[in-house]
């Protein structure tokens, strides 16, 4: 798999069927790169050139897109690409030690390709397996419930170069872990029931039911779904050059990237018909003929089953022309795969990615409901929101409005992980108290709960009486529990590095600010921090909150801000007493010189490091 | 009917429909600090220097359409403090060494740092390792100074129709690339006559063999602070360097 293996002509041969499958459509660039990479192993420079030529795009644009997504490789990543999920919950389960263990067994350095080109080992952002971690991805396939034993076995499998298909199936088992069912998870409607119910109601009456239900988006922002639908339904379509003229679009946001959340994974694996029905109902209501599912790259393993399901729906008349027997009602669903970018969960970045571009959030206004996918009126809804819409189609808006609280109707799926006895999916009516949830999942000694992931809020013990609802503690679903033995500083540090890694880099405050705070946290972590760093973090937090282009940057310092407010001692016990200590470490800078001269005696060390126990032994 | 207007730092500033806060301010000869904005190109709002407070909310002046009666805060200690921090971020993220830079005195980043009284970079330098590209016969690319404003990207794509420049990478690793498999400017169809050659607000795109024609001290922003040059900034066009 070295550069020399392919010449330009050979690459063009390999690329041709991929491009043809997508009709040479530049909007499909991300999909084309993904599939080309599956064939070639990575994206060599000549392949990018060939892709640009085939799609009639500037080469630099293709390279720019390839360089944006974590799962695209411009250099060979090895025949086995191992990526450990790096969420704090994985770390709490020992993923760091397991990663080191695998590296040692395989004789590889982290982030570096082994010399024989066989394997590389690195970390990736949360893979959505927090209830069955530690987890990793090997060539895109998830492995769960890792243990030392399994890691040893995996190293043997890799060294023996056994194809993934021959690895023990048990390793790849992904559980649903549904622990509490309410209206959604106990639904047992046959495929198409919701769509037929919506058609029977008619699109206007369906919209009226949606309004009555007061359903709010489950992706985190909590925008009223009926308003989105109505705006897109009313918005004028633009004429396009191609056959898509006058189209509206409905998009299912299945880019479940928020660390700690995995409810959409369960809905897509065990309730796919409800998702597809919800998407079809949305399409029917706003007058869209095309639905798109943006599935995060980490969930690529769900693709075959989802495609099969779509085929089944097509055969039974729920997709395609004359849906549900209604002449003139046409609806198609396509699945797009992401390629490793948390920011694409932001709906306008998601649209950019769907259009084959770098996932940079758009300037708003205009909003997607008037100018979304291909500039057309577009509704983007979370997976869970669409499932709820399907239920409303069947059981009506009034029924739904009767559940939960007045401002937060219906139920909410929580993805519970961390220091609990029974991690998994819990469905509650809105309004449930944090205390109740903790009791149900067996969190005996919780000191903190991170609700809605790093971009959400960190609750301390005195806030456990608060309730999960838009009017109190809103959430997209993540619920990570930290026992009293956990170090909340390390939790915050993990989140700071997450945001640094996932910042798209578009705007100055987020691009540079997330790096600066990660550096501050590392400095404090090393015992070199002072009050000065704490002040810096507060200052950068204020700037990011005010000036960032999108929600990612605005929320990037939230976990630091929260933990500094509520768990200050976790920081303070690390601070040195000085007013200021430079981050530049003279002792560290001399490490190379020490290595060259073979010295490690006290006289070869400087300053603070010389005083640390363990150094200069 | 009277013309609609915004209240910019207490002053009524008229605008016509479709104008942004930045457009309205520039037309009224009022300075809102900016780097990625250029009146000839579609605004993109990435540098965030033009962050203002409109009706109490922080927004980018270059992208937000003006609305009648909108109250906009621009020249305030809070906003200028935020802008100063943003400038410091841009300085430490790249390698900016003004005393030896050919663009010193003509550089918007430097001029804004003076204007906003940025006295030090404040943060620890990142010292990124960015190679220069001297392959092109006419032009030197010094990526060390790139602030990722995308003006060259926009100019080459929208005016020159060449798409010589683009951005790759993500987050802090985001960087400018050129349209060639070799990654060298010489292997693109770039020329000094391109619009893209003349829009860089800092010192990335430099003409070879013509350095320091005007001595430092007598250059554009040496003579008059950037805040006093709104009229010229608003009138920037193809034949004039930024």
The fourth-level CATH homologous superfamily of the largest domain in chain A is: NADH-ubiquinone oxidoreductase 51kDa subunit
Number of strands of chain A: 14
- Strand composition percent of chain B: 5-15%
Question: What portion of the residues of chain A fall into strands of 2 or more residues?
Answer: 5-15%
Find the structural class of chain A using helix and strand composition: alpha/beta
Kindly report the greatest chain-chain contact and the residue count on each side. A-B, 47 and 42 residues
Q: End-to-end distance of chain B, in Å?
A: 38 Å
Strand order of the largest sheet of chain A: 5-11-10-14-12-13
The averaged pLDDT of chain A comes out at 93
Outline of chain B: globular
Structural class of chain B: alpha+beta
> Residue share in helices of chain A?
40-55%
Described by strand count, sense and barrel closure, the largest sheet of chain A is: 6 strands, mixed
Offer a concise description of the structure:
Chain A: This is NAD-reducing hydrogenase HoxS subunit alpha. Chain A: Keywords: 4Fe-4S, Homeobox, Iron, Iron-sulfur, Metal-binding, Oxidoreductase. The complex is a heterodimer of chains A (617) and B (242). Chain A contains 26 helices and 14 strands.
Account of the protein in words:
The complex is a heterodimer of chains A (617) and B (242). In chain A, strand 3 and strand 4 form a beta hairpin. In chain A, the strands form 3 sheets. A 6-stranded mixed β-sheet of chain A has the order 5-11-10-14-12-13. In chain A, 42% of the residues lie in helices and 12% in strands. Chain A is α/β, with parallel strands linked by helices and 617 residues long. Chain B is of the alpha+beta class. Chain B has a domain of 126 residues: Alpha-Beta Plaits (2-Layer Sandwich), CATH 3.30.70. The longest helix of chain B is centred in the middle third of the chain and has 17 residues. Chain B is globular. The mean pLDDT of chain B is 94. The interface between A and B is large, with 47 and 42 residues.
């Amino acid at each position: 798999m070295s550069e020399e293996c392919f010449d330009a002509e050979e690459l063009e041969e390999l690329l041709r069927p991929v491009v043809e499958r997508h009709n040479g459509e530049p909007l499909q660039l991300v999909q084309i790169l993904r599939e080309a990479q599956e064939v070639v192993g990575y994206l060599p420079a000549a392949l990018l050139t060939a892709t640009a030529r085939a799609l009639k795009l500037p080469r630099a644009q293709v390279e720019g897109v390839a360089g944006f997504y974590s799962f695209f490789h411009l250099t060979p990543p090895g025949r086995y690409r191992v990526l450990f999920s790096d969420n704090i919950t994985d770390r709490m389960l020992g993923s760091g030690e397991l990663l080191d263990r695998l590296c040692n067994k395989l004789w590889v350095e982290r982030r570096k390709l082994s010399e024989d080109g066989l394997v590389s080992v690195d970390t990736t952002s949360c893979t959505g397996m927090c209830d069955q971690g530690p987890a990793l991805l090997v060539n895109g396939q998830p492995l769960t419930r890792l243990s030392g034993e399994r890691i040893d076995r995996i190293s043997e499998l890799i060294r023996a170069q056994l194809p993934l298909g021959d690895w023990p199936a048990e390793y790849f088992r992904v559980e649903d872990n549904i622990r509490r069912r309410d209206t959604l998870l106990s639904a047992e409607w046959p495929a198409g029931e919701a769509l037929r119910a919506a058609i029977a109601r008619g699109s206007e009456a369906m919209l009226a039911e949606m309004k009555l239900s007061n359903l709010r988006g489950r992706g985190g922002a909590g925008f009223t779904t009926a308003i989105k639908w109505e705006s897109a339904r009313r918005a004028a379509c633009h004429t396009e050059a191609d056959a898509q003229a006058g189209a509206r679009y409905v998009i299912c946001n299945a880019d479940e990237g928020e660390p700690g959340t995995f409810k959409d994974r369960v809905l897509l694996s065990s309730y796919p018909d409800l998702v597809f029905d919800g998407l079809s109902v949305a399409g029917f209501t706003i007058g869209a003929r095309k639905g798109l599912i943006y599935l995060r790259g980490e969930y690529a393993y769900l693709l075959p089953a989802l495609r099969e399901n779509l085929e089944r729906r097509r055969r039974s008349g729920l997709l395609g022309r004359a849906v549900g027997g209604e002449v003139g009602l046409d609806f198609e669903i396509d699945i797009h795969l992401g390629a490793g970018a948390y920011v694409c969960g932001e709906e306008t970045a998601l649209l950019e990615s769907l259009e084959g571009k770098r996932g940079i959030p758009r300037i708003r206004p205009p909003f997607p409901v008037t100018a979304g996918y291909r500039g057309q009126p577009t509704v983007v809804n979370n997976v869970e929101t669409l499932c709820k819409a399907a239920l409303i189609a069947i059981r009506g808006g009034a029924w739904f409005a009767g559940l939960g609280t007045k401002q937060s109707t219906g139920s909410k799926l929580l993805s519970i992980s961390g220091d609990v006895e029974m991690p998994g999916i819990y469905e509650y009516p809105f309004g449930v108290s944090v205390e109740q949830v903790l009791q149900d999942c067996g969190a005996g000694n919780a000191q903190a709960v991170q609700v809605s992931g790093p971009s959400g809020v960190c609750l301390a013990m005195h806030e456990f009486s608060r309730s999960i609802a838009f009017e109190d503690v809103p959430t997209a679903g993540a619920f990570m529990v930290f026992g009293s033995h956990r170090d909340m500083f390390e939790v915050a540090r993990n989140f700071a590095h997450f945001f640094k890694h996932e910042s798209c880099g578009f705007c100055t405050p987020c691009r540079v600010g997330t790096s600066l705070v990660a550096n501050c946290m590392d400095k404090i972590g090393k015992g070199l921090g002072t009050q000065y760093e704490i002040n810096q973090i507060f200052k950068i937090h204020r700037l990011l909150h005010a000036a960032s282009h999108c929600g990612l940057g605005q929320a990037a310092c939230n976990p630091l801000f929260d933990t500094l407010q509520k768990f200050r001692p976790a920081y303070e016990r690390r601070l040195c007493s000085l007013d200021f200590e430079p981050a530049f470490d003279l002792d560290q800078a001399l490490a190379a010189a020490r290595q060259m001269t073979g010295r490690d005696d006290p006289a070869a060390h400087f300053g603070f490091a010389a005083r640390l126990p363990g150094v200069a032994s | 009917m009277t013309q609609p207007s915004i209240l910019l730092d207490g002053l009524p500033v008229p605008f016509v429909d479709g104008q942004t806060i930045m457009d309205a301010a520039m037309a009224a000869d009022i300075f809102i600090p900016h780097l990625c904005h250029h009146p000839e190109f579609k605004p993109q709002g990435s540098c965030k220097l033009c962050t203002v407070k409109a009706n109490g909310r922080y927004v980018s002046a270059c992208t937000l359409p003006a609305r009648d009666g909108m109250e906009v805060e621009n020249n305030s200690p809070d906003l200028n403090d935020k802008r100063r921090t943003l400038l410091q971020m841009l300085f430490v993220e790249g390698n900016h060494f003004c005393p030896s830079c050919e663009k010193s005195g003509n550089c918007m980043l430097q001029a804004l740092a003076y204007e906003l009284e940025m006295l030090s970079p404040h943060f620890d330098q990142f010292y990124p390792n960015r190679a220069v590209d001297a392959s092109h016969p006419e032009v030197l690319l010094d990526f060390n100074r790139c602030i990722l404003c995308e003006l060259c990207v926009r100019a080459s794509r929208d005016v020159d129709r060449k798409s010589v420049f683009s951005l790759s990478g993500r987050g802090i690793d985001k960087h400018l690339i050129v349209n060639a498999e070799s990654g060298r400017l010489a292997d693109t169809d770039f020329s000094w006559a391109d619009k893209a050659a003349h829009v860089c607000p800092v010192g990335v795109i430099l003409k070879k063999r013509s350095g320091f024609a005007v001595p430092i001290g007598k250059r554009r922003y040496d003579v008059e602070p950037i805040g006093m040059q709104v009229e010229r900034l608003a009138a920037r066009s193809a034949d004039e360097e930024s």
